[in-house]
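A reminder from the course coordinator: this example appears on the midterm review sheet, so study it carefully.

Given structure:
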């Protein structure tokens, strides 16, 4: 390798995590950077004894200074390699998408699928992408071409408007990347249900694919229950509950447009989604408690309340408040499905927080199930940071 190759030299001992195939190089591990790489450039990573450890995407603005493309230093990270990573990742979803009932899945989940900084969600013939790092941005055209070349893809749309781009010094970018404009009537098909996908105006890429396993779990327990769906977004849980014979359904969300889509989702599925409350969930839950309301099934799926370890204490208090209110609203024999989508909150800590809430509510609540992000949001064993969504199914006496 020529001396002109842009290279990150690690400090002594800081190669350990890379040898265990963890894909991040933190700024504190970097001794020096040779060759003046541009943001997103591919750099060789060497240990302090100069052993080549692999190739990474350079992010000069981020605390995560580089993300590994490959741990094979002999690999050439070029158009072919990057495109092949996308194709292989999409191929791993073929079982999930091959059941004839589900046409929507996350095709690429960033580092967890070997394409750091790219999230690509497929809804039928449309793929919505987020480029969250300088490295993914640098390969944007190659990545977009590779996605557009996947069988059946007619539209590739970019929603790179997540906050995380700021940490990389990147500004927001939204718009068509390849093919036709996305349909305003785009629908995700899943297990016989239809969910509107808000590609241009919705959260994330338009729909919460990551709650697929929870939607599946819900189908078996909704019948005959009075359901409260808190942080409902576009009412996916409400639609399932309605379709599976719930007695009554109330959905709470602070977003009016999300609730309007929930109503549309009811129509799309030929069900009555019930009451839609546009409100702050904390306030609404207190109001329901004060009116001594009771529910047989509560879904509690707040947005990310902790972005990092520093916010975990404050977030824990908010999770506790929410879960305390929810447990109090449970009728005897009622179920609470409760989640945290904060990566910084471990399952262990989440369970402790919820236990504290149940204790304060004076209810002997039992765990009867656990929920996780689904198979298209995989967690590589060396990279537990990929795990962010965890939930508990609780039963109250
Ligand atoms: N359960 C949903 C996803 C929830 S995402 C699904 O399966 O599709 C979190 C939701 O919380 C978003 O729709 C957001 O609008 C809403 N939200 C955020 N803060 C809120 C608050 N304080 N009160 C009520 N809803 C809130």
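Designed residues:
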């Amino acid at each position: 390798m020529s001396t002109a190759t842009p290279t990150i030299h690690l400090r002594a001992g800081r190669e350990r995590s890379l040898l265990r195939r963890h894909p991040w190089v933190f700024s504190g591990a970097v001794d020096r950077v040779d060759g003046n790489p541009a943001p997103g450039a591919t750099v060789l990573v060497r240990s302090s004894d100069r052993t080549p450890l692999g190739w990474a995407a350079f992010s000069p603005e981020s605390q995560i200074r580089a993300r590994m493309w490959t741990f094979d230093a002999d690999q050439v990270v070029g158009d072919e390699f990057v495109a092949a990573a996308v194709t292989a990742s999409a191929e791993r979803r073929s079982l999930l998408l091959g059941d004839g009932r589900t046409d929507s899945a996350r095709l690429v989940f960033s580092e967890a699928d070997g394409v750091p900084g790219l999230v690509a969600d497929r809804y039928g013939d449309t793929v919505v992408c987020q480029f969250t790092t300088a490295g993914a941005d640098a390969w944007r055209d190659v990545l977009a071409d590779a996605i557009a070349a996947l069988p059946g893809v007619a539209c590739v749309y970019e929603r790179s408007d997540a906050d995380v781009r700021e940490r990389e010094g990147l500004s927001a970018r939204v718009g068509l990347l390849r093919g036709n404009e996305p349909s305003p009537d785009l629908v995700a098909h899943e297990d016989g249900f239809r969910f509107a996908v808000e590609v241009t105006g919705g959260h994330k890429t338009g729909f919460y694919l990551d709650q697929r396993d929870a939607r599946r779990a819900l189908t078996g327990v909704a019948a005959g229950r009075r359901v409260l769906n808190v942080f409902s977004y576009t009412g996916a849980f409400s639609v399932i509950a309605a379709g599976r014979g719930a007695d009554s359904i109330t959905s709470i969300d602070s977003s009016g447009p999300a609730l309007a889509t929930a109503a549309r989702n009811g129509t799309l599925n030929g069900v009555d989604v019930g009451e839609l409350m546009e409100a702050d969930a904390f306030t609404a839950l207190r109001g329901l408690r004060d009116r001594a309301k009771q529910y047989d099934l509560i879904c509690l799926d707040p947005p990310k309340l902790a972005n990092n370890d520093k916010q975990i204490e404050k977030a824990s208090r908010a999770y506790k408040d929410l879960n305390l209110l929810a447990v109090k609203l449970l009728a005897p024999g009622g179920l609470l499905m409760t989640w945290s989508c904060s990566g910084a909150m471990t399952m262990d800590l989440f369970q402790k927080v919820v236990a504290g809430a149940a204790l304060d509510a004076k209810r002997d609540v039992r765990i009867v199930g656990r929920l996780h992000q689904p198979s298209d949001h995989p967690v590589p064993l060396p990279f537990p940071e990929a795990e962010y969504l965890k939930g508990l199914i609780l039963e109250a006496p």
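The pocket of S-adenosyl-L-homocysteine is lined by residues 203, 208, 211, 231-234, 236-237, 252-255, 258, 280-281, 301, 303 (CB under 6 Å). The chain has three domains: 7-70, 79-179, 208-396.
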